[in-house]
Amino acid sequence: MIRPIQDVDLDRLARLLLGYLVEPANRELGQLIRERGPVSALGSVLAGHASAGLCGAVAARLGAEKITGSARDLSSFADRAETRAARLGIRIITPDDAEWPTQVDDLVRISRPGGLAVDRDTDPPLCLWVRGAMPLNEATERSVAVVGARAETPYGGRLATELAYDLASRQWTIVSGGAFGIDASAHRGALAAGGTTVTVLACGLDRPYPAAHASLFDSIAEHGLLISEWPPGAAPYRQRFLTRNRVIAASTLGTVVVEAGLRSGARHTLGRARLLGRSTMAVPGPVGSAMSAGCHVELRDLGTRLVTSVDEIVEEIGPVGALAPIPRGAERPRDALDPAVARLLDGLLPGPARSAETIAAEVGVSGRDARRGLPLLVAGGFAIQVEGRYRLAPAGRLDEAGGDT
Amino acid sequence: MIRPIQDVDLDRLARLLLGYLVEPANRELGQLIRERGPVSALGSVLAGHASAGLCGAVAARLGAEKITGSARDLSSFADRAETRAARLGIRIITPDDAEWPTQVDDLVRISRPGGLAVDRDTDPPLCLWVRGAMPLNEATERSVAVVGARAETPYGGRLATELAYDLASRQWTIVSGGAFGIDASAHRGALAAGGTTVTVLACGLDRPYPAAHASLFDSIAEHGLLISEWPPGAAPYRQRFLTRNRVIAASTLGTVVVEAGLRSGARHTLGRARLLGRSTMAVPGPVGSAMSAGCHVELRDLGTRLVTSVDEIVEEIGPVGALAPIPRGAERPRDALDPAVARLLDGLLPGPARSAETIAAEVGVSGRDARRGLPLLVAGGFAIQVEGRYRLAPAGRLDEAGGDT
Asked: What is the pLDDT of residue A327?
């Protein structure tokens, strides 16, 4: 059913206002919206027809903004917010917009009462502030989260950059936070490949955090998108990063942790991906590196898949059947030999030629098997026959690197 | 049923002779011995009552040694072999000896026709040549294989040494090959801890291979054991290393690969452990290191367990329930806070004190929740109250490292 334009506008207005008045991910508010729609939900929390905690939080915000809950005040506040956002090059999108990334609504699955995320609310975003030209749904349709420690090592930084570069080169969008370390390295890799990258901030888009990333964020907005659930002006509080992580996990088909300490926001994001049934991946690193310790726990104890290359990441998130080739060493000529014949090769010396019988006794086969097999080694270029005796051909030594490889 | 001494002696003689006459692991011979006993099996292969391949191989060896199959010749050959071994400080043990490591007989499970190991025969050893004072069964009762690449990196060498040192310190015996690289590093770690270590060679114990390890092998024989299925004089052929690997896997409760290239004998040993149902473990390393590539394939695609410490190895091979603690980061004071209260902490500034209402609006809770929660933060030492307003206590900043950890 297509609703009248007016309702959509009111829904959008209500979501925008609720986005200012309530911290994101609130399960109670999400439930109200799903039951009654955004406009009615807004009315309820303004009229005190919801929990004391939720109504009180809304009242506190209204008081701080010095606005009443009257329709005129609210409408004028929303107008100012839209105008201010537009001036900053920021647009506001809601589930009614064509570019809404519908995959984030999967968060409802883990947010319902009795849902899986017990540590905090994980409801889908009410609306998103967006900076950058590309439609958000297109940007994230084929995307993977590449996240990790702020305190990246040179090893981790190089890998994050390379993996993001390779993914972006194959038209995968990178999604990450805006932090120092792995997040920034991943964005830089994607940008270097001329690809699309999306930064999910935990504060207003007008407040680049960390401030040193202001120009990085400008590049990202030019070639990809900056998005946030928080309106302009919102500060980057610690709890907001934890709330934000669910959006990174829900926007993408899978999350790759490149480096993570034992206590790491990246592992929190991976946990959200796991709850959502998205692919969870981690890159191994040197034992003893604190920045790989979190990855190793994930790989050992939490069912996270080990990945070392773009092929292996795409195997997890790509179309079914896109299996990464299992890495194999180079084939060697002797691989093609029948094991019984390969055994004879052990009895050949580079120096003096020996009889088939001597070679048979040496390697423990019958004289007949030796007389049958040695000509095959000659034909294969492994052996040279000299007056009915056999010695190793120069080519046969090529992979005689000893047995204990 | 206790058999007469004489039968045991004859069985031992037959096994010793068969150990000279037939390459180890031969499935057909093992089957004959299980059906008829070693004496009758020896008689069969000497009389040509077995496959042409097996009988011909025995005939070739007899010819090379210039002995007939007569009882007198064989007995005299065996006497000389025993005397020669004794002079070298080597004893010969068979399943009739108390120190026989019965766990190696599990190899029958994968060796039977229709068994799992299809690439070559994997029958249990017929007998073992042993150098060193400790009974072999005691040495290997509580043992773990630590194996890996010859071309170890400094990283892998250090880890092999440390893990073997730690395992040996906890009274675990190390079992490995005698190669350069990881094998030698593991033995050295065990020796440094004053522990027991066992080297399984793929040649005669009188022929140290590689020769540069002669003095290492002397130390191992002094503090542990050198063992082989091949009699003195046997050369270290490539195929013998592959045959030998099953003994390393079968002697131990599990196999740890520390470093391995994609084509690695260590992975072959791990495959044997897998077929036997022993624990299979691998240590991760830097992506991009060729010497960790084999480990990563094992961890990704073959169900090998990732291990980074002795605790994690012991969890795999130790008594049921000896779970390694999952590594955790240090606890921080704010971990103990209720999430709703932790949220208030975000609204406290180190500078000016703010009212409960301002803080409530800032972090998105009700004024009432703020007035209830802020005193808890004061009590916990996170906040300071100044004339009814609140600011961050110096201790509260201790773990204010920002959110995007």
From this structure: 87
- A362 in contact with B, Cβ within 8 Å: yes
Lowest mean pLDDT: which of A124-138, A142-156, B230-244, B333-347? B333-347
Beta-strand pair A128-131/B90-93: unpaired
Q: How is chain B split into domains, by residue range? A: 1-83, 88-317, 333-397
Q: Which token pair is A309?
A: 């290359």
Amino acid found at B119: D
pLDDT at A332: 83
- Give pLDDT tens digits for A160-189: 999 999 999 999 999 999 999 999 999 999
Any CB–CB contact under 8 A between B72 and chain A?
A: no
User: Which class does domain B88-317 fall in?
Assistant: alpha beta
Neighbours of A298 (CB within 10 A): 26
Between CA A390 and CA A368 the distance in angstroms is: 15
Question: Does the beta carbon of B355 lie under 8 angstroms from any beta carbon of chain A?
Answer: no
CB contact under 8 A, A178 and B370: no
* Min distance B1 CA to chain A CA atoms (Å): 35
Domain B333-397, CATH: 1.10.10.10
What does the pLDDT look like over B3-40, one tens digit per residue?
555 677 999 999 999 999 999 999 999 999 999 999 99
Burial class (CB in 10 A: 0-12, 13-18, 19+), B108: middle
Our CA angle for B270, B276, B278, nearest 5°, is: 65
- CA atoms of B202 and B230, how far apart (whole Å): 7
Q: Token pair of B188, please?
A: 């050295």
Give the minimum alpha-carbon distance from B196 to chain A in angstroms, rounded to a whole number: 22
Pairwise CA distance, residues B301 & B285, whole Å: 16
Q: Distance between CA A394 and CA A388 in Å, rounded?
A: 18
Tokens of B79: 């006497």
| pTM, full prediction | 0.91
Q: How far is CA A145 from the centre of its chain?
A: 3
Cα gap A177→A251, rounded to integer Å: 12
